[in-house]
Structure formats: C-alpha cells, structure tokens
Amino acid sequence: MISLLQEAATTAVEHGAEGAEYGAEAASHGADAAAHGAEAGGMPQLNFDTFPNQIFWLLVTLGVLYWVLSRIALPRIAAVLSDRQGAITGDLMAAEEFKQRAKEAEAAYDKALADARSEAQKIVAANKAEIQKELDAAIAHADAEIAARAAESEKRIAEIRDSAQTDAETVARDVTAELVRAFGGNTDNADIDAAVDRRMKGVMQ
Prior knowledge:
Mean pLDDT: 75
Largest sheet: none
C-alpha cells in the first residue's frame, strides 16, 4: 500500500514538472509573438512610407468634392437662395402696394366722410331756413288773423257798447218817466231826456 502511494506521488510529480515546462515554453512563444506584433503593428496613417500616396488621394478627394460642390450643390443652393430672395422681394413689394392702397382708401374714406358731413350741414341749414321761413309766415298769418279778429272784436264790442248805451238810455227814460208819474208829477219828455243825458254822461265819465 505504501509503495503504491509512493509510485502515484512520483508519477504526479513527474507530470507536474512536464506541465510546468510546457507552460514556460508556451509563455516564451507568446512573448516572442507579442514582440513581433509590436514591431509590425501601429496606425497606417502615421506610416511615413505611405505619406505621398495619402497626400495624392487627399488632393484627388478634395478636387472631386470641390467639383461636386461647384457644379451641383452650390448652383442649386444659389438658385434656391435667389428664388427665396425673389419671393421675399415680391412679398415686400406687394405689402408696400397694399399699404399704399390702404392709405389711399383711408384718404378717400376721410374725404367722403368730410363731404357727407358738409352736405349734411348744408341740408340741415337749408331745412332750418325753410322751417324758419314757414314759421315766420305762419306767425305773420297768425298775427294778421289775430289783429283782424281783434279789430272785429273791438268793432263788435263798440257796437254792443253803443247798443247797450242806447238801451240803457231808453230804459232810464222809461224808468224816469214812470217814477215821475208815480210821484204825481208831469212827464216832460224833453226834461227827462236832458236829465238822463246828464246822468249818463256822468256815469260814462
């Protein structure tokens, strides 16, 4: 039993030593490969051997880009800018024209409003003068009619007064004569008329 364990340990040690030697060899090969890669690697753009070729193709690429931009892109951009500038200019001109039309319309409106006000004032003045004329005529007619009626009324009052005076004198003569007869006196028409006339003159005064 002890001898079997010793043989197994000896075999394991031998295999471990072989694995260590194999690992060291593999590490040595990896280091050589890494060193070789470091010598052969790096950025191609920084390789001075390819600088002339890179500069040539850079110039070719820039020339192609310039040709494309100058013949295709820039004319189209210029055409678009020209169209937009023309549209903006046209819009500004149209806006200015509309503004001028608005000013003219406002001036025409103000003139029409002033003319309408002036015409309205003329119509009001004419109507006022016509109304005043009709009113003056009506007042004159009314004054004439009032004067005529006043004269007629005065005439009638005078007639009534004369008639009343005559009637009063007649009644006074009749009453005086009756009173004289009632008191037993003689009725002399001349005396009665004279007495009534004096009395009436005193009353009228």
